[in-house]
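Justification of computing resources. Each target in the renewal requires a structure prediction run like the one illustrated here; the chain below, 139 residues long, is used simply to show the kind of job we budget for.
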Amino acid sequence: MENIRKQVSATAKSYIGTSVKSHGRSRCGVDCAGLLYLVFRETIGVDRDFHDYGERPTSAFVYRMIKHYADRIQGAEALVGDVVLLNAGNHSTHFGILVPDKRVIYPDVRTGVVVEHALSVRTSRFRLRVVAYFRMKGI
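Resulting structure tokens:
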């Protein structure tokens, strides 16, 4: 499993700098759901996409969607390759992928590209956005 986690991390990192595009599912542009879909398709063969959401999916939709692919875990259990659910504004609707050193890769709508950000600093404003952690089935 550790090897798969390293592959997930390396694949997620390969998307850094990719443009953010609503409903994007390619290296030309991704949204957070697209990033999860592409990374996990390339690494563990999960080929079930979800794209029947509007411009701003609801938190309820996001929770229904993720439970088909992943199990919720405690933050203390989170490992490289796990999924991080983040608040986007006042809603829990944004995903990232945990990579080494408690960092997360996610599409940042403010910068317009996929970025890597540290979660390890307790005073970080970003850390306050973490809502939950999930482990993809098959990892």
